[in-house]
Specification:
CATH architecture of the largest domain: 3-Layer(aba) Sandwich
Order of helices and strands: HHHEEHEHHEHEEEHEHEHEEEHE
Number of domains: 2
CATH topology of the largest domain: D-Maltodextrin-Binding Protein, domain 2
Largest sheet: 11 strands, mixed
Shape: rod-shaped
Radius of gyration: 32 Å
Length: 306
């Protein structure tokens, strides 16, 4: 490994044509500069300067090294400038992940506005179910994610933002009593329309049913919330979906009720891999998402800790 101090001395002597002037520029003694040059020449196994009593001039090999070192310094300078730009949010790459319900209900306008204000940021979003979302974080494929609080992941940091109700959506003529809230037992009296088993929301609902010793009489399993709503509107059953996924205004012919006994809800978090640091523009976007969620009436604020 070559000594950077020696290369610094080499550049100064080559540019000024004098060991004395180079020593003055570098605020070192002339003998110290000479030692550094001699050590560099010994490492390379060839002389870098022609030395006479009246002048110091680069050898052919010295001229080659001078060109290489200058080129390397330009690359370093370019790299440092790019990093400075990224640090000031002028340019860079930003990748985030989100569970589908939040991606559809909250992020489109927010990301549009953010992109308009930061045209030099390469912004990407990955819409993923919870398990894949956590994998993307661990693979460093995304800077942060928005998703539900999930137990049993000590390598990840979950910052609670808001809570979200899970609601029952059904056709008005399905047979469920028209009410602002229904017990889970009342909901399962009709067929259920459920998200696919790979989603954490499904695991949460299955656990709630088991906890109440309830079994769905019949069920439809789909992968898309839009499909769940279409099935509900067709009178095929009751869809259990996040409240933010219900269109506003509620489509004609559908009724929406909160679920109680037990209360079905989930905590929405900003999720990061522990030990990773967010860039300033990632932090800015994360803050905006937090603010937008906090103002959205479809979500409930988390009470401040005493």
């Amino acid at each position: 490994m070559y000594n950077f101090k020696a290369l610094e001395c080499f550049l100064a002597v080559a540019e000024l044509g004098s060991f004395k002037l180079a020593a003055g520029r570098l605020n070192r003694s002339q003998s110290a500069v000479s030692v550094q040059i001699r050590q560099l020449e010994e490492q390379l196994g060839l002389p870098l300067f022609h030395r006479t009593t009246r002048m110091v001039r680069l050898t052919r090999q010295g001229e080659q090294l001078f060109d290489y070192v200058q080129r390397a310094l330009r690359e370093i300078d370019t790299g440092l400038n790019e990093i400075r730009k990224a640090a000031s949010a002028e340019t860079g790459e930003l990748a985030i992940a989100s569970v589908p319900s939040i991606a559809a209900a909250v992020l489109p306008r927010l990301l549009r506005d953010y992109k308009a204000e930061h045209p030099n940021i390469s912004l990407s979003l990955r819409e993923l179910h919870a398990d894949d979302l956590l994998t993307a974080l661990r693979d460093l494929a995304v800077d942060f994610a928005i998703g539900p609080a999930l137990p049993g992941h000590p390598d990840l940091n979950f910052t609670p933002l808001v809570t979200e109700q899970i609601v029952a959506v059904s056709a008005c003529d399905l047979g469920l009593p028209p009410s602002e809230s229904l017990t889970l037992a009342e909901v399962v009296a009709e067929p259920l329309i459920l998200i696919s088993s790979g989603a954490y929301l499904r695991q949460y609902i299955d656990a709630a049913l088991e906890g109440q010793n309830l079994t769905a009489r019949d069920s439809f399993e789909v992968t898309n919330v839009r499909t769940m709503l279409d099935f509900a509107q067709a009178g095929l059953g009751t869809a259990l979906i996040p409240a933010a996924s219900v269109p506003s205004p509620t489509p004609q012919g559908l009724q929406v009720a909160k679920v109680r006994q037990p209360d079905l809800h989930r905590t929405i978090c900003r999720i990061e891999l522990r030990g990773t640091a967010m860039t300033p523009f990632a932090q800015e976007l994360a803050t905006r998402i937090t603010e937008v969620l906090g103002r959205d009436s479809r979500f409930q604020q988390i009470p401040a800790a005493d």
